């Protein structure tokens, strides 16, 4: 995806990969970079030399070890140089808005989250997001922002910038979110699908750092996937790759927001699971119920079964793409091990053995913050171009 992860030459890609690796750690030595990446020492030294010349990283003496650890000159560590104006990100979920400002490297400075029906109130949601962003800018004194990235829970046509699917975000269809947000904020805005931002966040700062090919699944009030293939984000011809939430499940009759029955997200989603948990726990206050509030056999069984259903769909994707990992994010991914164990069981059962043997089933290391983190990191990446 040239817009967000341009790699015009192998050397530039190597340099950027090492930069991101240094950035993800407080301090790291060249020897550690060689070990972590498998690159030759000369390749690492050449790339680091360029980064030092560009002023993107700096060298500093590592802390000395304790008594008895040996003498000699301390190892030289590498750290990323923070410079430039702050960046910002907006994460639109189906029922929330999460706004944040980060430093020039995407490190979090301030954030605010609020609940609102994003699906049915597009203009209200964008107005509210712009207000929250303005409030945060005043709090941190961010007179200037170098980049703003927003993620929405639906497909955006990369050729037109328009939301096309009326079955997913009914009040957003025909709108150009980037233009709408630019008008409200006075900033240039880049818009992506939220699951793609989650994949970017996990690739740069989470569980995807060791997996150049993986699928990130945002399992929340909707189900979506972000694809990373060979280290590159993949969006498809018009930007709608990864819309797995409306995969048809044979024999299921649950009504979906799209008007069909038996869609994956109608069967496996936060709302669906909450309804099932409430039905099996009649003494619990349904209005205050959350998936992590209960720790009992029935709840674990429901989550495990949801994971098995989701895993059946993901097994087919594993056969097609042969990923190194399935990274499960969103609120369901953060709900504990039961759901992940269900996913793993179905992948082992339905994926080809050679495929199932190499894929890791992992929770998102960034948890429910993967999309917001990905937005900040992508904003920092775009501002540095």
Automatic annotation (TrEMBL):
Taxonomic superkingdom: Bacteria
What keyword terms does UniProt attach to this protein? Kinase, Transferase
Q: What is this protein called?
A: Sugar kinase of the NBD/HSP70 family, may contain an N-terminal HTH domain
Q: What's the family?
A: Belongs to the ROK (NagC/XylR) family.
Q: Which Pfam families match?
A: ROK (PF00480)
Q: Which GO terms describe its molecular function?
A: kinase activity
- InterPro entries listed in its UniProt record: ATPase_NBD, ROK, WH-like_DNA-bd_sf, WH_DNA-bd_sf
Region feature (Disordered): 55-75
Q: Which PANTHER family match?
A: GLUCOKINASE (PTHR18964:SF173), ROK (REPRESSOR, ORF, KINASE) FAMILY (PTHR18964)
